[in-house]
Amino acid sequence: MKNFSNRYIFLYVSGLVLLIAVTLTLVSLGLKPRREANVEREKMRQILKAAGYESNKDEVPNLSALEFQELAPEHYSIRCADGSLGEVVRVQGKGLWGPIWGYVALSSDRTTIKGVAFSHKSETPGLGAKITDDTFAKQFAGKKLYDADGLFVSVRVTPKGKEGQLSKENRVDAISGATITSRGVDKMLYDGLKEK
Amino acid sequence: MSLKKYLGPLSSDNPILVQTLGVCSALAVTAQLKPALVMALSVTVVCAFSNLIISLIRNTIPPRIRIIVQLLIVSFWVILVDQVLQAYVYEISKLLSVFVGLIITNCIIMGRLEAFALSHKPWPSFMDGLMNGLGYGLVLIVVAFFRELLGSGTLWNIPVVPHAWYEAGYLNNGLMILPPMALILVGTIIWIKNSKTRRAK
Question: Contacts of residue A127 in chain B, CB cutoff 8 Å?
Fold first, then answer.
């Protein structure tokens, strides 16, 4: 086995680290426009999905035809798929492994949910990751944020058999096997829609 | 040089089934076919090219810091793969999320660098990494096939269990989606494999 001096080892590692760092930085900078475009496109797709439009990966929707407007940061006004004007707000919270977030389309009087589109960073595929599935999201359409007495209850995500006093209009079914993620969605909606 | 001598990792010397390396990620990403396949490809790329680079510079690496050098090279490829996935197949990179980054800790890759690339020429090292990645991927896909089919009733996100079955009372096996079931499946595959081939002493 060859004998390497400390000086050689030090220079070797420094050189290698420098080389790798520079290469990765260049790659990262080179791909940055693509990554950011992906994120932006993903966001628009979610807003449109919440507003009830079928998502199409390749099609760029005509936003001005939809009267799309930014009212405040992460708060938009858009003509929804059912023809009426609605508002889309962003909500964010915590799942089991990392952040979850989504866009909720509300009726213009802000009492009824028209649709939702959720996303997550690192929920378990097949379990928590199912919050992005249509079967889960479709449940939210038409749900009310207020109970019969006009009090804010949000739309609760409850497991089957644990509905309590909640009326059908104020709850949806949780995902079985994904208790923590479901609770996260529940809390995210409650916190995010409270002041809207 | 024949191709045959590199084929060991696909069967008789499979990294998961025989060397029992990389089992943890095999449990994590196999709930569905699509992430499993992308994970398999990513690991194959990282494993093959890390082996190649380490083999190319193997005579200049001071033995005292070889693990650090290996880690540097492996993380370089993992970050590269992650960036490319995010830029070109954003949907799938979202599906895999943290598990791409965790390829760094996949024991198969470090194992091959230590056991093979440090002492072999570049081309055999590249093939060794490639085949070990594919051997790993093969098991991943088999496990994911059964987990997605029995756990979600779909394959590649396309429903394959007829609707009539659900109406007749058929339920997806929720246990299949949970990691313990992946362990049992991997165990079953190892069992089947061992009962067919006895390793030569």
Answer: 31, 177-178
